[in-house]
Amino acid sequence: MVVPNNESERIEALHRCNILDSAPEDAFDELALLAAQICGSPIALITLVDANRQWFKSKLGLTVDQIPRESSFCEYTIQRPGLFAIRDALEDGRFSNNPLVSAEPKIRSYAGVPLITSEGFAVGTLCVMSPVPKLLSKDQIKALEILGRQVSRWIALRHPSSRMGAAAGVHASAMIGKSERAGQASHTNRLMQTLTTPPLENPAAGSSRAFLLKRLALALRHDEFTVHFQPKIELASRQVTGFEALVRWIHPELGLILPQEFIPIAEEEASQIESLTLCVLKQTVQQACARGWVERGLQVAVNLSAASLQDGRLPGQIMGILESWKFPARLLILEITESAFMYDFSRARATLNRLREIGVSLSVDDYGTGYSSLAYLKELPLQELKIDRVFVTNIQRRERDFAIVRATVELAHKLGMTVVAEGVEDMATLETLDGIGCDAAQGYAIARPMRAEELSEWLGTHCRV
Length: 465
Prior knowledge:
6-stranded antiparallel sheet, 465 residues, 41% helix, 19 helices, alpha/beta
């Protein structure tokens, strides 16, 4: 095993990040997905290299959580300041014992960039792999380097003690935004344009928050928010039953800004989160009516914030939108996180009761990660429970996660609720969930979030999964 001269300090820096063995997070998964799309690779990983293992924070195209550090590609990537690439691993004796090479998925080509802290320590990698021998183009390499700096920034935002923010350089939204529009060539070209975009101040210092706060109101007036939709299926029949609406901010200069950046800021201003919620609901209902989802009986789910539940006007506003589009209330699901019930339970319950009277369905989102009290399951008029991906992802490998999911399914059914598993990333997990009686599933194993026009095409060939 190749060991850096500063290995003990590097390991200490990695542990300061407080990210090893943490739960999956959408921000990292979206970056891995972008890397795969831009580089034309079926496998993309965000890895952390510990003393004896390589652990995957995000994994696209793989089911394992980690592999031994010895003989791994990333073992060599962290030794370099820039890209490390292998055209054909079968021709390189250093990797003949790598389990990803010698067994499925039988990797042939690899390209990875290190994740470097502001202190100069390489703690992990962003990498793409393929079973086909190849090398990346110059534009793809540059894009991968940019996304690698973005991964470092997200580690800093999630785990401030890692002090990686200063090393990230280019603003997150600028890097991501000009890439998720259409096709691999468009991805790369738009992403490359960000190299000439003047970087914002260090977002870890708080200036990014001020920047976004000033622009939220303008963005709402200028229709810069759009909605993507992620399909949900019934497990017993594998039929598509509906979609979750996921808001995206398309800034005219920065491109796509992720919800993880702007939602917490919008929630600080009651008027802004109200406007944003109604904007998403209007777009969702409009698309459902325009694209024939209503005729097919497909449900749409929209997220509500904690602040929304404290607003007594919300039920009337939602009823007005449904009536204006003649949209059946039974086809609308409103998703609420557990933490939303902590602020003023009585007021939240009153709002939910009024919403239920309208005829919409109510769902607990990210169950198990927030205010984990069974009291609200008894007191609130809930029809659906969504199990957070933190429990679903490792259901086949961790007995406790399996036990939690199975017990949750049984409890929800006894309370008359249906159960949706979030973050399903492979078909084996899908089968396991079906076997324990879970009702529905959502995740990349079924489909990624898509624009409405993409979804219409996808539905043409994926009525069943």
